[in-house]
Amino acid sequence: MWYTLAGSLNSIFILISLYGIWSQVKMVWDRKAAARTAHEVNGSESDKPTDLLSLNQFTVSFLAYCAFFVYGYSIRPFNHFIVWPRMIAAMLILALLWEIYRDRKTRLAFASSMMATVIMLLALSGLMMSWIFGGIFIDEGRRASQSLIVLVTLFLAQGYAHQISLIWKSGKTGAVSLKMSQFILAMDVTTILFAFAMGLQTGWPLLFLATVSAITKLAIMYLFKWVELSPLAFQRRSRIA
């Protein structure tokens, strides 16, 4: 009963976090529309739609969601609480990666977008194979996804450190969405509870990644206040302008 309750609670907050990711995608679209309108009306140039969004951070976030998507269908019993919300989250971030590429037109952004697309297709293929062939690939998928989760967690810490550094150095938050950090933090807290409900033998990857993610979200949320109140942030914004 505790497992079902914790899993349901986590799924609810994951769905809420999906709204947070969607709000980030929508913010980019809104900024793109505003920039296009400003250029058409008076020929002025505004901040880029993906200003200050860390390609590094979002690439690693995609890998984290995708790794747990694979992990969820590689363990037995099949974990619906993990699989479907993470699949949707990975697809939303994949869309955001392509928006970053369209805005910046850099080779690195293109490479990240293509890599994420290929990985998503492979992960979806793995899901189909697990249905068609049963448990033949289960052990391999679980071991691979566990190793990827550990690696991704380390990269996630580095990726969010890069995002934090961009805000700290510029004194502004740019296109970074506060809602996304708030909603994902709520998801991380319930994920930690769910990991304990699963048992540490199975749930330790969830616990490891969610703890690191929660710490970084708290840091980003603090920086939103710092940007508003700190004289140092004002100086850095003025210097860049």
Which key terms come to mind for this protein?
241 residues, mainly alpha, 8 helices
Description:
There is one protein chain. The protein has 241 residues and is mainly α. It has one domain (2-41, 50-240). Helix content is 86%, strand content 0%. It has 8 helices and no strands. The chain has helices at 2-42, 55-74, 80-104, 107-133, 138-170, 178-198, 200-229, 231-240. Helix 3 (80-104) runs antiparallel to helix 4, helix 6 runs antiparallel to helix 7 and helix 7 crosses helix 8.
Mean pLDDT value: 86
Number of helices, counting only DSSP H or I runs of 4 residues or more: 8
- SSE run: HHHHHHHH
- Euclidean distance between termini CA atoms: 56 Å
Q: What Rg do the Cα atoms give?
A: 19 Å
Strand fraction: under 5%
Query: How many domains, as an integer?
Result: 1
Q: Which percent bin holds the helix content?
A: over 70%
**Secondary-structure content class:** mainly alpha
Number of strands: 0
Spans of 5+ residues with little confidence (pLDDT < 50)? Answer: none
Shape: globular
- Give a quick account of the main beta sheet: strands, pairing sense, barrel closure: none
